[in-house]
Amino acid sequence: MNAVVRIAVLGCGAISDFAYLPTLKRFQTARVTLLVDTNAERREKLASKFNVEHTNSCVDGCYDHFDAAIIALPHSLHAPVSLKLLAHGKAVLVEKPMAISVSECDAMINAAEKSGVALAVGLMRRFLWSHRLAVSLIKSGALGRIESFDFREGFIYDWPVTSDFFFRKEAAGGGVLIDTGVHTLDSLLHWLGDFSEVEYFDDAEGGVDANCLLNLCLQNGARGVVELSRTRRLRNTAIIRGENGSFEIALYGNHVKLFAPDQPYVLDGLVSNLKEPNKDQGYLELFTAEIADFIAAMRNNRRPEVDGQSARSAIRLIEACYRHRQSLQLPWMRQDLKING
Questions:
Q1: pLDDT classification of 333: cutoffs 50, 70, 90
Q2: Which H or E element spans position 259?
Q3: Whose CA is closest to 11, among 207, 178, 161?
Q4: Per the domain annotation, does 223 fall within a domain?
Q5: How far, CA to CA in Å, does 26 sit from each of 31, 37, 45, 121, 182?
Q6: Burial grade of 338 (CB within 10 A; 0-12, 13-18, 19 or more)
Q7: pLDDT tens for each residue of 124-160
Q8: Phi, psi dihedrals of residue 34, rounded to the nearest 5°
Q9: Distance separating alpha carbons of residues 278 and 160, to the nearest angstrom
Q10: What distance in Å separates the CA atoms of residue 2 and residue 34, rounded to the nearest whole number?
């Protein structure tokens, strides 16, 4: 591999503009050499802004310009474009969700193994220090047997979209569950293991879901709930309860509370890097960690920290949810309410 990895960014939407392209400027070992987008005005604007030499409306005919690619396209294109690139021997970092079906995930995993190149998935919360602590606490057995969990994540949707694909089911694959929810479910499954049963409710009614609720039983016997919303601000934490203690952790930050039974106190604070105790992880720091791992995986011929096989688990759960969907009963949809007059 060249001393500097040449990277193509496919998709010139907000995630590339505000995250991937600014982050890649931090690296001396990587350089963006190609932008691909069907919107000529958009790709040329970003090429000028980030000093990228080559642009095109599609990747065909441009394979000599790059060694690896970041795919930041509409969800329905993640699998077919990844498969094309992997077949050409190009390492791939694909934005979340990895794909919109398990069969697509499997095809991508098989293609990467056949070509012998890295396949990474953009589940950047795996690199949060607090989430690494969660894995350590659970695996150490300090909490004892895990009994229950409660994940709540919700915001009023304000992502600076450059197209409408998030709201078209055929392009997005779904709504909040497969978009931000894939981060939430990946954390749950990565910490606690696979699920055995799921009961799922959402408000899609033929469109994309903005609110949903999952009642889950895991293979280890733990039971719990996951609530997601694009229309309401929820507490945005995960609570894990074990027989010897529990913790509450920020889903997108480094704030952690630890609880011990029969104790009059709670440990409450931020998880930090001991080498730089005053430094926190912002948005770009997480993307930096993700891209650094991707580059290291290519150079050292190893699997990325978030590879296709581990990312597949959340897609399997999402697919099961949509397959067994029930209508979410919201207060304004109750049939027993009577309007006077």
A1: low
A2: strand 255-259
A3: 161
A4: yes
A5: 10, 23, 20, 20, 27
A6: exposed
A7: 999 999 999 999 999 999 999 999 999 999 999 887 7
A8: -150, 135
A9: 30
A10: 16
Instruction: Give me 224's structure tokens.
Output: 């719990």
Residue with tokens 């891209």: 291
Residue type, 165: F
Say if 254 falls within a structural domain.
yes
How many structural domains comprise the chain? 2
Where does a domain end: 70, 101, 124? 124
Backbone angles phi, psi at 226, to 5 degrees: -130, 125
Separation CA 308–CA 94 (nearest Å): 9
What's 194's domain CATH number?
A: 3.30.360.10
* Residue 97 located in a structural domain: yes
The amino acid at residue 160 is P
Q: Taking a C-beta distance cutoff of 8 angstroms, is the pair 177, 322 a contact?
A: yes
Residues 120 and 267 in one domain: no
- What are the structure tokens assigned to 197, written together? 């049963």
Helix extents (H) in 125-231? 129-140, 169-172, 181-192
Looking at residue 110, its amino acid is N
The per-type count for the chain, helices as H runs and strands as E runs, is 10, 15
Same domain, 227 and 109: no
Where in the sequence is the domain holding 170, given as residue range(s)?
A: 126-288+315-327
The reply to whether 163 and 258 lie within a common domain is yes
Q: How remote is the C-alpha of 46 from its chain's centroid?
A: 24
Beta carbons of 147 and 2 less than 8 angstroms apart: no
| pTM score over 0.90 | yes
- Residues 119, 158 share a domain: no
Do 252 and 236 meet the contact criterion of CB atoms below 8 Å apart? yes
